[in-house]
Amino acid sequence: MKFMLFVLPTVPGTLDDRKRLRPIARNNERYQQMLEELRKLAIFADEAGFDVFATTEHHFHSEGYETSVAPLLLYADLAARTKRIKFSPLGLVLPSWDPIRAAEELAVLDHLTKGRIYAGFARGYQDRWVNVLGQQYHVTGAPMDGSSIDNHNRKVYEENVKVIKKAWTEEAWDYDGEYYKVPYPYKEGIRRWPVADWTRSYGAPGEIDDAGVVRKICVVPKPYQLPHPPMFQPFSVSETTIRYTAQSGIVPWILVANPPDFQRLCHVYQDVAATAGRKLRLGESVGAFRAVHFGNTEAEAVALLRDTNFAGFQNYFGGFGFWEAFRTAEDAAKYPLDPYTPLPPSEWTIDRMRRVKYGLAGTADQIKTERSVVTATSSGSAGSSIRASCRGRRRCVRSSYSPSTSSRHSDKSVCRCHLHPARAGDR
């Protein structure tokens, strides 16, 4: 099992600071402070033995929460300051990217770090920025409800993954997709390329036809890791996504935490992967998310959970439907999925977060006991993503902010402790 530290880059500040300095995300002093905190976290995670350091990709977060713009640039900086830890976006929101540009930038980062990256791709769920940056595909944030809007986002995402794989693995290629074409225009080809003889002599075979028309392209460089970096997809909650990732050789990071439901999705992944020729143990090639909180007493750890992860879900993530990942079988009668009835805010409780084994809180010994329950359903898994918080420990390094608390106290903290559980997902 491998372990990931999942961090949401957040410009530090209390709620009062955010009002006084709004928009705080454009405050250069505070943004520089955030970068220094991220560097300290990455160095700490590297020295503590974490395998991967990951962040989201988001834009336009004027409030300063999840200010995870340009993650690949950030990883280039962090990689130069660390020795062995790998980096992954969770993930690049492909419906807002040109897929060839994504393939190129990831390949360059793969070379700069000599293989210290994973390629994490996501569908994107936040309309505020996905609608703007994804306008070339007429795409919006994914509501994850099976609607035509949701399916359009999924189709664009899956086509872009195909294009990226072709760019990484084929020396000269063309593509006639629904949303993307290479060359463009596809049937006519690119006729204004006055150095056709140069390309015919020194470029990839097949790029230029006998009439000097560009018929295929060659994307450079190819990745440092061959055939390409391992791929991740967060925040997985639906069986549709689990099946797609299993067929495509992608590691899903599963946000669903309730052990029986998590295990069911692992079985689906294992079965579908087998039909694609991949024989895996149960839980292998699957990622799990958990939020871990340590205290000198259980009460202290639970208070930390309340002030950090729980506050984040109450004030922010709940608005995007993330509590749906914490359903249990008992919810079906009161809040059926057909017709869809979301969990109401009255069900957004610390007890639920702990009951489904997403939020782990206690002393070190108590966490070890809870860990055994979680890992029993994910033996052999590819990895666990950890959000860990601790209070009163000298080796605790804290980053970012939780919407209801002060700047230095956050659900994105990590403590140097031996942990196994984690947090994961797909949107």
Question: Could you give the topology of this structure?
Answer:
Layout: E1 2-7, H1 15-20, H2 28-48, E2 52-55, H3 71-81, E3 86-89, E4 92-93, H4 99-112, E5 119-122, H5 127-133, H6 148-169, E6 175-176, E7 181-182, H7 196-202, E8 231-236, H8 239-248, E9 251-254, H9 259-275, E10 287-294, H10 298-307, H11 309-315, H12 331-334, H13 350-355, E11 359-362, H14 364-375, E12 383-390, E13 396-397, E14 414-415
Parallel strand pairs: 1-2, 1-12, 2-3, 4-5, 5-8, 8-9, 9-10, 10-11, 10-12
Antiparallel strand pairs: 6-7, 13-14
Helix pairs in contact: 4-6, 8-9, 10-11
Features:
427 residues; alpha/beta; TIM Barrel; 2 domains; ten-stranded parallel beta sheet; two-stranded antiparallel ribbon; 14 helices
CATH superfamily of the largest domain: Luciferase-like domain
Please mark out the parts with pLDDT under 50 across 5 or more consecutive residues, or reply none. Answer: 392-427
Largest sheet: 10 strands, parallel
The H-and-E topology, N to C, reads as EHHEHEEHEHHEEHEHEHEHHHHEHEEE
